[in-house]
Amino acid sequence: MVQLYEKIFYDNEVIGKNNARLSVASSAVLYGLSVYTVFPVSINKEGQKVSFRLTEHFQRLTNSAKIIGIDDFEKNWNLEKFIDATKKLIDANDINEDVFVRATVHVDAQIAGTRSRGLSTVVSMFVYKAESILPRKGARLKTSVWRRIPDYAIPSRAKVNGAYVNSVLAKQDAIDSGYDDCIFLDFNGHVCELSAANIFMVRHGQLITPDATHDLLEGINRQTIIQLAGDQGIEVVERSIDLTELYIADEVFACGTSAYLTPIIEIDARKIHGPGKITKQLGRLHAEVIKGDSYEYSGFITPL
Ligand code: PMP
């Protein structure tokens, strides 16, 4: 278990982590009716605490609430308030290492039935030690026996808690089989993503990732990698990927807040050679950018 910091932000104030009370009768608990995001807070070379792409994280949280129909959030929150809450949370905890912040909008209305609109919400934010969910040197993946929930059943681009049962099933299946994580396929057998990270492959010098209509979360790091690669003169293509293309790819890597940029070294007992040149190049750059150590990409950074 990762270390959870003592102070959390809950219901507009910073309190002890054991004092947050979300009812067992809330829609958040009954139906998994919460939306969330996780973003990194790092200590940069100058010793400043900085967060990465906070604006985009807030925007995705707002979009997730909008897609699900949780309309109370947008009425009560804006980016300024979100940044202010993050600052208060970080100030209240004695942080001298890189951490992740998980911000969640919970529907806390009680016994409200299976609906979303017009229900009260509460926002929680907590901090925990930043640890990768994948082995940093290289991860081994297994194609999941569970398919990715399609966008037409539970929207993939909304980061909604209840949908993560799908990820739990797939990740546990991979672990049970001796792998680090899964590859989700969609209903047509095309590659979507991992349990909580996006996927890229390199073939014939092109960097290829499934396009955003393939039942995947529109990852903030996915978008960042696409931009960084483009700026490095690497050709980026968003298109359908067949599983067998991954088997014979020159390089494969995963990316996400909690996955960083991790080379994939094996898929379904087939070795993937690497980490290759492009994976290494983008991995170095991505690490620098998320930590706020790149002057060129300082626009992604909010000092806290
Ligand atoms: N896909 C899924 C299903 C995820 O849970 C995550 C983690 N948020 C990602 C992709 C990567 O998204 P991000 O880069 O925004 O962390």
CATH level-1 class of the largest domain? Alpha Beta
Overall geometry: globular
Second rung of CATH, namely the architecture of the largest domain? Alpha-Beta Barrel
H-E string: EEHEEHHHEEEHEEEEHEHEEEHE
Instruction: State the fourth-level CATH superfamily of the largest domain.
Output: D-amino Acid Aminotransferase, subunit A, domain 2
Q: What is the number of helical segments per DSSP (H or I, 4+ residues)?
A: 8
Ends: how far apart?
Answer: 26 Å
What is the SS-derived class?
alpha+beta
Q: Give me the CATH fold name of the largest domain.
A: D-amino Acid Aminotransferase, Chain A, domain 2
Low-confidence stretches: none
Q: Average the pLDDT over all residues and give the rounded result.
A: 97
| Count of DSSP strands | 16
* Small molecules (ligands, ions, cofactors) in the structure: 4'-deoxy-4'-aminopyridoxal-5'-phosphate
**C-alpha Rg, in Å?**
19 Å
- What share of residues are in beta strands? 25-35%
The biggest beta sheet reads: 9 strands, mixed
Characteristics:
nine-stranded mixed β-sheet, 28% strand, 304 residues, seven-stranded antiparallel β-sheet, 8 helices, binds 4'-deoxy-4'-aminopyridoxal-5'-phosphate, 27% helix, D-amino Acid Aminotransferase, Chain A, domain 2, D-amino Acid Aminotransferase, Chain A, domain 1, single chain
Written account of the structure:
There is one protein chain. With 304 residues, the chain is an alpha+beta fold. The chain has 8 helices and 16 strands. The chain folds into 2 domains: 123 residues, D-amino Acid Aminotransferase, Chain A, domain 1 (2-Layer Sandwich); 152 residues, D-amino Acid Aminotransferase, subunit A, domain 2 (D-amino Acid Aminotransferase, Chain A, domain 2, Alpha-Beta Barrel), CATH 3.20.10. The protein is globular, with a radius of gyration of 19 Å. 45% of the residues are buried.
